[in-house]
Amino acid sequence: METTTRPAPQTTPRRALQSRTALVTGAAGGLGTAITRTLVAEGVQVWAADVRATSLKTLREALEADPPQGTGTVRPLEIDIRDPLRVAEAVATVIEADGRLDVLVNNAAVDVTLPVGELSPVDADLVIGTDLLGPIYLCLEAFPRMVAQGSGYIINILSTAALQTWTEAGLYAAAKHGLRAFTHTLFQEARRDCPEVGVTGVVAGGMRTPFITERFPDADVSMLQEPSVVADAIRFVLTQPVSSLVPEIVVIPNREPTWP
């Protein structure tokens, strides 16, 4: 009786996170803290960026009180991402210190929850500047460097507001729709210019973070997901085989009211 020897399954190298360098914006927020913890657990050297030094101090104290398991480190970086000069300085600081930037997570976001008729140009500058222009500025600095070094990954945190709209969210929806379009364009250009530079938009549904609970004190938190779930999805994306691409991923609680 003949026996057939099956060929061993082919294994494709996966992207590694151990000893990589990441820049995470909005790192002191609920999702930003969860992302920072997850990356530290994977051995990543995380530059935790936020607009306020006091927020970074709170983040440091939270991590010291409940240290994440892992060999990664956290370094604070105070930055207002609405300022393109400060963005350029921040990216240069990271690269000067670590020699490269492997992962950029554009997570920082704000909102002004008002009807369009009550919004001001100052509100527009804040929301569009933080949620759309800031991530674009960071991509403009990081993407060419990642192409030059031959690898890297950019994660842009989106929202269900990137796919539809609702009242009192005009600026936020405009910013997230714009960021989604920019992300898709950058994905196509990375695929053409350097396939080992990944670009993914993460559509995150409602989370139990101050971003929602402080703006909507009466929100039903049972309908929200933990930010760690979204952070785990980001880890999944960052560790996929180098031969595969994830242009977009959606992570929502099973009772998400704004989907589809």
In short:
The protein is α/β, with parallel strands linked by helices and 260 residues long.
What is the topological layout?
Layout: E1 21-25, H1 30-41, E2 45-50, H2 53-65, E3 73-78, H3 84-98, E4 103-106, H4 121-149, E5 152-157, H5 170-193, E6 197-204, H6 210-213, H7 227-238, E7 248-251
Parallel strand pairs: 1-2, 1-4, 2-3, 4-5, 5-6, 6-7
Helix pairs in contact: 1-7, 3-4, 4-5
Task: Explain this structure.
Helix 1 packs across helix 7 and helix 3 (84-98) runs parallel beside helix 4 (121-149). With 260 residues, this protein is of the alpha/beta class. It has a 7-stranded parallel beta sheet with strand order 3-2-1-4-5-6-7, with helices on both faces. Helix 2 (53-65) links the parallel strand 2 (45-50) and strand 3 (73-78). The mean pLDDT is 94. It contains 7 helices and 7 strands. The chain has a single domain (21-251), classed as Rossmann fold (3-Layer(aba) Sandwich).
Which keywords apply here?
260 residues, alpha/beta, 7 helices, 42% helix
Strand segment tally: 7
Helical segment count: 7
Would you identify the CATH H-level superfamily?
NAD(P)-binding Rossmann-like Domain
* Order of helix and strand elements from N to C terminus: EHEHEHEHEHEHHE
Kindly report the average pLDDT value.
Answer: 94
In CATH's first tier, which class applies?
Alpha Beta
Residue windows where pLDDT falls under 50 for at least 5 positions: none
